[in-house]
Model the fold of this input.
Amino acid sequence: MTTPHRDRSGRPLVAVTGLGIVTSLGEGRDDNWAALTGGRSGIHRIDRFATDNLRTTIAATVDFVAAEPFCAPALSQELAVRAVAEAIGQAAIGQAGDFPGALFIAVPPVEMEWPQRLALAQASGAAGDVTYADLIAAARSGRFKTWHDLFLFGSVADHVAERFGTKGSPVSLSTACSSGATAIQLGVEAIRRGEVEAALCVGTDGSVNPESLIRFSLLSALSTQNDPPGAASKPFSKNRDGFVMGEGAAALVLEDYDHALARGATVLGFVLGCGERGDSFHRTRSSPDGAPIIAAIREAIDDAGLTPDAIDYVNAHGTATPENDKMESLGLMAVLGERMSGVPISSNKSMIGHTLTAAGAIEAVASLMTLQTGRLPPTINFQVPDPAIALDVVPNVARDASVTRVLSNSFGFGGQNTCLVFGAEPA
Done:
């Protein structure tokens, strides 16, 4: 009998056997990787809805996927299904709707948007101000039954679970901008505990709509450099002024390494470490000392059984907001020290925008593609260096490099900080 493969802590090794991705750059690994390494931007002017009087009129929307208009759950669901189908197809596992493991899926917060609210208000028949009770009465009329599944928090997970036959109760989560990475972390932990032999980990987000743009604008979080659209997202540049909203989805098939070997699967890489730290400092801002970010980075590297010297490349959170880029730089310098100035770091968000709940999963796919190809996607739009951020950001043009360990960072509003370490081989 072959000795089970274990990491330095005696836990099952977690292998990646399938990847799927959809972004504004296209559908599938090949199209997205060619565009990312080619430095092509998927950010464009919004034509899905009128942007008159909005300060930000651009986004990285996925316009080639049709879905219910003004309904983030519907688009998020369709994006997730496409990414999962590709990942399962590559892994050659569960293709007949019988996935042998659990589902962990990151989805955007679910709430009715203005078209649906207006329809309910009109259906209520209220003569004056429409109250909450009026809306409930209209909803109970049965006229809006088709909305029921769309606007339940777990509806996307339930649909994906039914479509692909995952086992057990699907887990939906929403931890702000770190959600996609958190979904992967949960899958890793389930495999390490021996609860499952395989996990389907997904991040999806299709929530570009007028209300979301207004809300982020009120937080002064969005770039207003609308012209030209492709130059708006400027991570780590001195003239950065905020992030650009994006849409997309990514899926990873994780397996106990022994399970993958037993069925003859092709292993694409390993999830070596996970780190997570909460930050109760502020609803949107990071703690000024960077302690939670630093702790999350350190924990991920420690969990992988590595030292900071083992990290060859960082796939940055890199939102292009003035504060986030500064705090991410501070955290990396604190953990990797002076060596960080020579470790390449790049932000996919310069090309695909900030895909919010999907970002951690999408960037995990990019990290694993880097391990497979030895190609570093660039940080585009880097023309004005920030003297306070002394990092090698792989400016504007992709680069070949020898990479065996990648750190992928995800830092979210409300202090949700999740970091992952991927490797080409077990640690």
Notes: Residues 72-91 form the longest helix (20 residues). The chain has a mean pLDDT of 91. The chain has 13 helices and 15 strands. The CA atoms of residues 187 and 199 lie 5 Å apart.
